[in-house]
Amino acid sequence: MGNSMRTVRIGNGAGFWGDNLDAPRLLAEAGRLDYLTLEYLAELTMSILAHQRSRDVETGYVGDFPTVVESLLPTLRSQPELRIVTNAGGMNPAGCARRVAEILAVGDLADMRIAAVSGDDLTAAIDEHLAAGEVFSHLETGQPLGDLRERVVSANAYLGAAGIVEALANDARVVITGRVADASLVLGPALHEFGWDQNDWQRLAGATVAGHLVECGAQLTGGMNSTWTSETPLANLGYPIAELSEDGTAIVTKADETDGRVTCETVSEQLIYEIGDPAHYLTPDVDADFSQVALEEVGPDRVRVSGAQGNPAPERLKVSLAYSDGWKASGMLVVAGRDCAAKAKIAGQMLLDRVQRAGFKLDRTLVECLGAGDSMPGIALGTGDPWEVVLRVSAFDSRRVAVERFCREFAPLVTSGPPGVTGYTGARARAQRVLAYWPTTIARGAVTPHVTVKTATEWTT
């Protein structure tokens, strides 16, 4: 990469909903960023947000994001060129934009332009798409949606970078999307800054690789790395930064004076994380070929990434669909003393027998003995029996009443089970609605992003 080649510096401060709340602020303060991205969504996350919005139409977005924005107010004022791109909008990008606008207005940033990118939510239009010939067949089994239609809770297509590009072209400093492909959060700013052609598949693939590398946050900078030892400091773990070049290559790094490391090892582990065919990493923007990607350490905590190849974008977009599928619960008890693993298994079966005696044969159950190998089946354990384990019993049933009765059978084991059972593991388990996942696709032409850009003042009036 020549010194004269223009670069854009994009840092990702969140890899999932629940990630470190301080990471975005610390990264923005120290990272010398052009863009801060925050990647929050997963299939499970969309189901949770759909459930939230079913109870309150004003919710359905990632609740951590407004808190993060509040922490970023001083940085947004001191770094007027910094932009934020995030999929925190979840099931309700406009609602998220309104809440963020309130925070910006109070923080003397009322003129800041905020974009809400929607169009991914297909829930209300499922019947329309079915009538047009879509069958929403399951990606793995090929089974059509069929009678499950009546139980659909949410359906979101994976949008690409186009809506983000439009928002940035309209001077949005904060871009809030719904379900977009993770890597598109990085590709959008690259397309906007470099003006690449939408069919420049090689450059799009290069930026998509960079987006994929940083999307999971600290996994790129040493978190979860297989070479970790107790000597590897992680308390002040730096979050990843991609220095994107106009030729589609990138250098991935982290902020100076932060813990962790960026090496060919950490980068290669993230490169192959959550992919299927490395020659065809499918996104709404490009069919990216990772198989020829080359990694080169060009300095301390600096790895150059090149060699990505691209093919035309797929004709169908992935859809994350969730449907209502019964009730579940899981509870835990500690079992201590001699033969505790055997006692825990017996206690778990006693619990299930008592539920059945009460008249409920549960659809599915699982008894686990954590500390005795059940969390790592097939892995050899050290010699010697443990002296304490955690009994975890889980149940699923189509009837809520059956699962609620299951939840009531844990506490009695403390005095009516084997010796050594204790109850110091939290409150009584609660029945939770199960939202099952149905991966499917839809024709690209059936989905269009919708972009709304307003100042914070306009969003709140």
Write structural notes for this entry:
The chain is an alpha+beta fold. It folds into 2 domains: 7-120 and 158-314, no CATH class; 322-438, Alpha-Beta Plaits. It is 28% helix and 26% strand. The protein has helices at residues 23-30, 43-55, 64-78, 93-106, 126-131, 162-169, 184-194, 201-214, 264-271, 340-357, 400-407, 413-416, 456-459, and strands at residues 7-12, 35-38, 83-86, 113-118, 152-157, 174-177, 240-245, 250-254, 281-282, 287-289, 294-299, 302-306, 309-311, 316-336, 364-370, 388-397, 421-422, 432-443, 450-455. It has a 10-stranded mixed sheet, with helices on both faces. Strands 5, 14, 15, 16, 17 and 18 form a 6-stranded antiparallel sheet that branches. Strands 9-10-13 form a 3-stranded antiparallel sheet, covered by helices on one side. A hairpin with a 4-residue loop joins strand 9 (281-282) and strand 10. The two termini are 47 Å apart. The model has no long low-confidence stretch (mean pLDDT 95).
Break the fold down into its secondary structure elements and pairings.
Layout: E1 7-12, H1 23-30, E2 35-38, H2 43-55, H3 64-78, E3 83-86, H4 93-106, E4 113-118, H5 126-131, E5 152-157, H6 162-169, E6 174-177, H7 184-194, H8 201-214, E7 240-245, E8 250-254, H9 264-271, E9 281-282, E10 287-289, E11 294-299, E12 302-306, E13 309-311, E14 316-336, H10 340-357, E15 364-370, E16 388-397, H11 400-407, H12 413-416, E17 421-422, E18 432-443, E19 450-455, H13 456-459
